[in-house]
Amino acid sequence: MIEQSLHWDDLRVVQAIAEAGSLSGAGRRLGASHATVFRRLNAIERRLGVALFERSRTGYAPTPAGEDLAATAARVETEVLGAERRVVGRDLRLSGTIRVTTTDTLLMGLLSPIFAGFQHTHPEIVLEVAVSNQLFNLSQRDADVAVRPSPTPPEHLVGRRVGTIAQAVYARTDGAADAWVGPDRHLGYAALDAWMAGQGANQRCRYRVDTMFGMLAATRDGLGRAVLPCYLADAEPALTRLGEPIPELATDLWLLTHPDLRRVARIRAFMAYLAEALSACAPRLEGQPGRPAHSSGRA
């Protein structure tokens, strides 16, 4: 008699293939080779006596049976992750690991010394920092805490607004270039794109880059003027701010976590520490460091 029971690993294989649409893509998600995924899928289909995917040159498309199993896998994964968060949420010790996600500019320009201060205060807590310009999925435990600029944070997360990030136009101190440095489309900065278009700056934009650090470096090296976060650019002696911060580009800074984790002692301690430290940084964030702003001239 053939054993027909399904295991969680079987469901994960089916879910990965359905979501990726290919064996190689599923293998990357599962950390397995193309051949291993192929063998496991064939074994599952033989055991169940049903085809779960239609094979074609363009990839793998789930059959009705495959769709059913993939949907079941997604439900099971949600339940397992939810149970994990609830269990972790009962941990009252000031020890363990906190995985934080933030942007490269916030980490290097603002957060690194704050993280260092927290670790000195709580040496039993390990910090793992994931640097990305994309908001990680806190529901799937990609990260425990996010420190992110956002006008509208996801509704399923909890936290607080911890500041406002001001931005202004900067250029080299030894001469304001007439050309502009702008964001590449991969940076996904629609508000800045719209502002530059409204100022007529796009016609004189001769250099684009997909990170704020890249824009900062280009401005410092004389490739043109650029809109930069004040907390980052005000610290650069080679740059001069041209005018006051731009109101329509001000962005809220949020400290976020998943509702199931907000009662975890180490998460509470970390978020309280960051909120207090970032509150003290408000003048820097808002572009009030005490350095004079020069007339911006024409855009």
Automatic annotation (TrEMBL):
<dbReference type="InterPro" id="IPR036388">
    <property type="entry name" value="WH-like_DNA-bd_sf"/>
</dbReference>
<keyword id="KW-0804">Transcription</keyword>
<dbReference type="Pfam" id="PF03466">
    <property type="entry name" value="LysR_substrate"/>
</dbReference>
<protein>
    <submittedName>
        <fullName>LysR family transcriptional regulator</fullName>
    </submittedName>
</protein>
<dbReference type="InterPro" id="IPR036390">
    <property type="entry name" value="WH_DNA-bd_sf"/>
</dbReference>
<dbReference type="InterPro" id="IPR058163">
    <property type="entry name" value="LysR-type_TF_proteobact-type"/>
</dbReference>
<dbReference type="InterPro" id="IPR000847">
    <property type="entry name" value="LysR_HTH_N"/>
</dbReference>
<feature type="domain" description="HTH lysR-type">
    <location>
        <begin position="6"/>
        <end position="63"/>
    </location>
</feature>
<dbReference type="Pfam" id="PF00126">
    <property type="entry name" value="HTH_1"/>
</dbReference>
<comment type="similarity">
    <text>Belongs to the LysR transcriptional regulatory family.</text>
</comment>
<keyword id="KW-0805">Transcription regulation</keyword>
<keyword id="KW-0238">DNA-binding</keyword>
<dbReference type="InterPro" id="IPR005119">
    <property type="entry name" value="LysR_subst-bd"/>
</dbReference>
